[in-house]
Every structure is written in structure tokens, then in C-alpha cells.
Amino acid sequence: MKHILTTFILFFAVTAVTFAQDEQKANPKNTWKTLGNITFKKQFDEFMGFKVDVPVFAPEVQALDGKEITIKGYIIPTEGYKSHKAFVFSAYPYNMCYFCGGAGPETVMEVDADEDIKYTADPVTIKGILQLNSGDINQLIYSMTKATLVKE
């Protein structure tokens, strides 16, 4: 019985991961929903000298680490309203983002683009390589490298 239960749980996890990857490709807006599948645990940070919240990524999020993803969201400018190769990308508009509103850290990511992406207040779709971060509290928990603008 224990073997059957373990097999079922493994099958469910693999199916959920495959579904999350397929769903993310089909509907970039749902990528944020997948990235929201995290919890946090308290862990002592030697450098800071106190406990900090460390993200624990669900299997479907872990499966996206190092993979190309497509995601729709908003550019949060860090150096004025111009074209950027490096910026913060948010599931929500500027006035509702993690830094300005009530959203959580799973709703933003650092972006390093291959070419300048012009600022707009409208949502845009980008694609690039997702990187997860649970060890550096000075960085966001998600980052994207080799990002490019997806023409819609």
C-alpha cells in the first residue's frame, strides 16, 4: 500500500509539473500563478544576525528553474522612464507592485534583457531564462536572463 501511495504522489507531482510548463507556454499570464506556488520558512542568516524568510519553491516552480519561460506583466522602471536592459518586472502595474502596494515578493522579478526594452505603462510579454533565488536576501526571489520582448 505504501508503494502505491508513493507512486501516486510521484505521478501527481510529475503531472502537475508538466501541466504547469505546458500552461505557462500557452498562457503567459498564468506564469505568475505558477510562480506564486511558494511558501516561506524562517532561517537564521549569519550575515544579518537574525532569522529571515527563505522561499520554499513548489515542484512546479522548481521545474521552471533554468528554463525559458514566457510571462506577461509590467515594467517597473528603476532608472527613469526610458528603454532598459535591466529592470524589475511585475505581475501588477506600478501602483500595485510589491514595492508600492500589497503584493508579495513572488509577483516581481529582476530582468536582464539582451536588448533595450522600451518602458510602457501597458502590460508586455517577455521571454527568457528563469532563475530561482533562495539564498541571497539582497536579490529578488526570481530573475530572468537573456530576456527579449515578445511581439504580440
Fill in the keyword field for this structure.
OB fold (Dihydrolipoamide Acetyltransferase, E2P); 7 strands; 3 helices; alpha+beta
What does this entry look like structurally?
The chain is α+β, with helices and mostly antiparallel strands and about 150 residues long. The chain has a single domain (about 1-150), classed as OB fold (Dihydrolipoamide Acetyltransferase, E2P), CATH 2.40.50. About 20% of the residues lie in helices and about 40% in strands. The strands form two sheets. Strands 3-4-5-7-6 form a five-stranded mixed β-barrel. About 25% of the residues are buried. Residues about 1-25 have low confidence and may be disordered.
CATH architecture: Beta Barrel
Q: What overall form do the CA principal axes indicate?
A: globular
Instruction: Look at the structure and give the CATH class.
Output: Mainly Beta
The helix/strand order is HHEEHEEEEE
In terms of quaternary structure, the protein is single chain
Question: Span between N and C termini?
Answer: 50 Å
Question: Proportion of β residues?
Answer: 35-45%
Number of strands: 7
Low-confidence stretches: 1-26
Number of domains: 1
Radius of gyration: 17 Å
